[in-house]
Amino acid sequence: MAAKKQAQSPEARDVATPMIEDKVGILHVGIDLGTSRSAIASSNGTREVMASLVGWPKDSVSAKVLGRTVVVGDRVHENRLALNCCFPLKDGNLAFTQLKGDQRKVSRRAGVRLLAALRKAARVQKGQAVCAVIGAPAEATRENKEAIIDLAREARIDGVMVVSEPFAVAYALDALENAIVIDIGAGTIDLCRMAGSLPCDEDQVTLFQAGDYVDQRLCELIHEAHPEIQFTSNMIKLAKERFSSMVDTQKRAIVSFPAQGRPTKIDITDQIRTAVTELVPSMIAGIQKLVSTFDPEFQHKIRDKVIVSGGGSQVFGLQDALESGLDELGGGRVIIVDDPVFTGAQGALKLAQDMPLEYWNQIRN
Ligand SMILES: Nc1ncnc2c1ncn2[C@@H]1O[C@H](COP(=O)(O)OP(=O)(O)OP(=O)(O)O)[C@@H](O)[C@H]1O
Ligand SMILES: [Mg+2]
Questions:
Q1: The pLDDT of residue 122
Q2: Distance 63 CA to ligand 2 centre (A)
Q3: Residue 88 CB–ligand 1 contact under 6 Å
Q4: Domains located in the chain, CATH noted
Q5: Which terminus of the chain is more solvent-facing, meaning fewer CB atoms within 10 Å of its CB: N or C?
Q6: Per residue in 280-323, pLDDT tens?
Q7: How do residues 192-214 score in pLDDT, each as one tens digit?
Q8: Do 241 and 282 form a contact (C-beta atoms < 8 A)?
Q9: Is the CB of 210 under 6 A from ligand 1?
Q10: Closest ligand 1 atom, CA of 32?
């Protein structure tokens, strides 16, 4: 959809318009910039997801083997031993903002590379301007939002707007009123109350224990039960994603991990259940905070429409566990989204397409 020309605020005229209007047509994109993986959906129909990971060859031999000077996305996992790896996001935010010196430079460069790889995946045509809505954690600071905009511009994205991740999900599903959206990611769990207008700070809660925390807990629990077993956090993450369940089922989580170099089968069903279940009380507390501070006449309505997205929404039994928790608050209904990988990016794309030109390059919640 072509961007609408409307009266523009001075900031938008100074910053955004010359860049965008000089180009031949606009490609709108929605980006879900995640701690563990990032997804992009674009107005030309392209959809792509990649690990939020960047790697540089360790030496000239690895550069020769890999045939490139930088690797972005899932290939980094596969070639991890030959690369110096960098996760540009931590706890849902760009990691460089918390770092100093060389580490800061490398992390910042990794962020630009990731955004550039996402842009490339959107198949931009020559001369086209790229206008992106990017999902960030619900309580991302102003500094973080500005950092996302700066890096996106360096990655040759012409117009940038930052929104909260759960708001992008709500927009995708047209759940703009009387709903609570929970996005369970790797770095953060973001909750957002939708009341028919743009959510403000009081409508949002970010919890900093999410999928990565579950992986860490799982490592501790498995190490306690099987000290002789060797594993990496990536092995644990893959096992969790394959077997995650909050309920006791017949299916056992049997994995084969090395002990003294020999593959050894162990049962980690109980450890997985314990680790994934630990997130539920804080989510219920987050829902309670958003419900209890809402207009009393509408509280039951938002409790009755709790929408859950993000990779962590795929844990078996989560819907029942949250609904049991909601019983304590007077009852409620939980819906798990059908497409946890792309719903955020798809909502961000829809917003990008609906946004008039003057809003580009300004920060929005
Ligand atoms: N089936 C599953 N069961 C449990 N957890 C899962 C499953 N599938 C994915 N996850 C977890 O979901 C998280 C990734 O989800 P998502 O891609 O939504 O996060 P992200 O966007 O990268 O992170 P954030 O939104 O915090 O920046 C990871 O911790 C991953 O291990
Ligand atoms: Mg996310």
A1: 97
A2: 31
A3: no
A4: 10-170+343-359 (3.30.420.40), 211-277 (3.30.420.40)
A5: N
A6: 999 999 999 999 999 999 999 999 999 999 999 999 999 999 99
A7: 999 999 899 899 999 999 999 99
A8: no
A9: yes
A10: 21
